[in-house]
């Protein structure tokens, strides 16, 4: 055997699980297709990141109509978390239940918020979250406080907070995993969508992997792309086959490659015993793909400037839950501060106009739930290319959220409010392609993230999420990984 546990992927799920299992003393090998991000002049260069896309992989997928596009996924140690906005928000308690939305009913989870709460608390402590759970009325119960106080508002964001409160909204701090002083020491920019090469974000590499690799029984191997999993007639995973043809063996295999790549790997691993792919007796692998409905909303006053550098400290959940006959609409949070180069690259504006707008804009991110749909799915073409046929759902709720937000911002003193939805090229929290559930005929894994079909296969990334909710999934992925780690330790390593 090459290891006791093979973990495929070093993002938030894989890295957190490795940290949870490391104290057992079992030999753990993490296989990552990418390499470490190294410090470079492009780290804080908005034109390089957003204009030239220097960190994006040279990869092409097909959409539902067969048209090629370049996805915004990243392949490196730490996964997409190296570029994330570090928002570590718990799902609300109602997100675990069946809930009506304008676009349909969500199915609920096979576990409750209360069953995951201790893991949420442990994940917040592991990832050193900065926050305050007392300011948001939708915040679910916490068994403990955040490890650190919130990241402070900059003066212009403090003014925005007051303006929003005066029009009846309830602004609250975003729970964040970022060391502000360490981040700003590397450059005066926001962290949202910027790569972290100095350990200032609390991401999968700087926290999860760092903890795991402190143990001598844990090893990370980079540049190891996994091509397929092999299984026997009894359903056990017998080997992991790499792209170079080499095979690795372990009694326990964990897939944590991300919602799209995990589904593609399982489908690509089809064999005589599993002709439609591994873990796919339910025909649910690749189905129920969800990608949050998101829009950038820019609030401006022509005579006021926004001098903020990082900006991303404030969120609104006033529209999150049904109220007064209004349905659940979603979450609003600050984007990292948009600059002229970012706006010019994203909106195709002349640089002088983009600079003028960015100097005055307060940049918000409106996010609504995308509902699971079995026809929204990841499939493979005959040549192996990934086809992502995203069936966007619940769009009317998102349009209403943007409309309500614009109305509130105008009342708060911003006469000009612009909005632009994100398209499929932006990976807005992809999830759902290996859904969790109680019924093996309708789901891929159980509530501990173990495959229904293969007793020695676990999946610990966003693919297992039964619903997308309307907040960032990173903390929930970490909490589920900790839960899976406890289960593995108790059931597989008890002897």
Automatic annotation (TrEMBL):
Keywords from the UniProt entry: FAD, Flavoprotein, Oxidoreductase
Positions of transmembrane segments: none
InterPro entries referenced in this protein's UniProt entry, alphabetically: FAD/NAD-bd_sf, GMC_OxRdtase_N, GMC_OxRtase_C, P2Ox-like
GO terms assigned for molecular function: flavin adenine dinucleotide binding; oxidoreductase activity, acting on CH-OH group of donors
Uppermost EC category: oxidoreductase
Cofactors demanded by this protein: FAD
EC number: 1.1.3.-
Record domain Glucose-methanol-choline oxidoreductase N-terminal: where: 195-293
Segments for region (Disordered): 132-156
Residue span, Glucose-methanol-choline oxidoreductase C-terminal domain: 372-481
Family: Belongs to the GMC oxidoreductase family.
PANTHER family given in the database record: PYRANOSE 2-OXIDASE
Protein name per Swiss-Prot or TrEMBL: 6'''-hydroxyparomomycin C oxidase
Species name: Pseudoruegeria aquimaris
Gene: livQ
